Input
Amino acid sequence: MLHKRLYQFLIVYLIGLSVLLGFKYGLSLSDYVIPGVPMIWKAAEGASGRYVADTLNTLGVAVVGHMISIFLATVVGILGRRRSWAGSMIRAAAYNIQAYPIVAVAPIIFILLGDGPVSRLLIAAMICYFPLLLSFMGIFSEPVKDIEHFFNATGRMNWRLQVKIRAFENMRKLTTVIVGSATMAMVGTIVAEFIAAANGIGYSIRIALYQSDLAKILVALFYIGIFTSLYLFCLEWAGFRIEKRFETPKEGRG
Output
């Protein structure tokens, strides 16, 4: 499954690169506008070591930010699952916070917390938190009637058991949402680094942009895609193992 995901990324990357080079040669653009293959190869030879380290730095922040957003979305999703005044207030607060664009909030975060990893963590978590929250609220607020009826009838139902039942019954949906939001965590971290951070692959892309060095940007995009694909594979593998763990009990109920 890992090689399949890497192949898919490489195909998409090469198609995008081919289109870009097609514009270059079709419109007879200079290497200053769009670099040719020799320039891209030279940039890869010169910058790969630094860019691998930068991308790993960004990935580390993105993973932690992603885990924070999953935790927060889980907590708020559980608290806001009830159709009560408190649940409505929690949902309204979560929605209103998301209404502020990250480009408007990011400067405030950097002023208060500086340009270190904490700011990048917070921005990464904020960007991927909302889609997770929407999905978690939908899953945790939707009853699994057949199973919950049994526990309600026997007087054994409590909020922990209710959440477990709804999570296990929608494990595949949860896995899909978590994997999908991982790319947003990576994007959020790169955006934070691009705006004001002093390290990470987003910072390296900003430097390359100031130097009008598109070849280095293309190399950076390659490594971002590779390491993001590896992280997505790890999440998919973990989700698959969890699904398999609960597959037998689920079948046993039938």
Remarks:
- The chain has one domain: 2-26+36-249.
- The domain at 2-26+36-249 is CATH 1.10.3720.10 (MetI-like fold).
- Residues 248-254 have pLDDT under 50 and may be disordered.
